[in-house]
Amino acid sequence: MKAKVSAKTYLWLFGINLFISAFTFGGGYVVVPMIRKYFVQKKKLFTEEDVVSMAAVSQSTPGAIAINLSALAGYQVAGISGACVSCIAAILPPLFILSLVSLWYTAFASNVLISAVLRGMQAGVAALIVDLIVDMCKMILKEKSLLLTLMIPSAFFCNFILQINVALILIVCCILCILRVWYRQTTKHKTNLELRKDDSL
After folding, report:
1. DSSP 3-state of 181
2. Span 33-57, pLDDT tens digits
3. Could you give the CA distance from residue 126 to residue 119 in angstroms, rounded to a whole number?
């Protein structure tokens, strides 16, 4: 159960999620570096491992990754109420921007200046996503697990070269990790039983 959270924390959650949502273009994964910067590096509210876990859950659950991740970050800080505040703050900027775009879609679509701005944003977004991927790979490699290390190029090969559906790749990866945990627990349990038998003798 979360400790009592001050009104200042809720205001900060609302403000930071509003800021992140308003200034992250190019898809949900761009939110991850921003969450890491403000929640982990500046405020130290949770760890890098927590961010990676939340990103994985956000991708696996229905809905927009950016909204899911904001809600999880808010929940981690201030429970259910924190998740609600973060979710509302994350929804407002895209709702407002898309309402404006839909009203003047033809003007936006044909505007040369806006097209140039969007191209510049795409370049920035690509750099942020590469940075995130490098950090995630580093964290996986720190585990020193052959299975997890091999999953990275295997998943890329299956999706990019073989064009296998991402959902199927994720399901297989999840099953392999569950089997890995089950095998480790079974082995540990057997080892403990053998040690007890040796002690009783």
Report:
1. helix
2. 888 888 988 888 888 888 888 887 8
3. 11
Nearest to 85 by CA among 40, 21, 1: 21
For residue 100, what are the contacts with CB-CB under 8 A and spacing of at least 6? none
Higher pLDDT, 1 or 201: 201
Q: How far is CA 98 from CA 22, 33, 108, in A?
A: 12, 23, 11
Q: How many CB atoms lie within 10 A of CB 55?
A: 22
Q: How far is CA 96 from CA 70, 114, 117, in A?
A: 18, 17, 19
Structure tokens at 8: 């200042």
Q: What number of other Cβ atoms are within 10 A of residue 68's Cβ?
A: 22
pLDDT of 128-151, one tens digit each? 778 778 877 887 888 788 888 899
* Cα–chain center distance at 147: 21
DSSP tag of 11 = H
Q: Give start and end residues of each alpha helix (H) in 24-165.
A: 31-35, 48-60, 65-103, 105-110, 112-142, 146-156
Are the C-beta atoms of 70 and 89 separated by less than 8 Å?
yes
Q: What is the pLDDT of residue 6?
A: 83
Q: What is the C-alpha to C-alpha distance for residues 119 and 71, in angstroms, rounded to an integer?
A: 29
Residue the block writes with tokens 């080892």: 191
- Can you tell me whether residue 78 is helix, strand or coil? helix
Q: Give Cβ neighbours of residue 196 (< 8 Å, ≥ 6 apart).
A: none
What pLDDT, on the 0 to 100 scale, is given for residue 117? 75
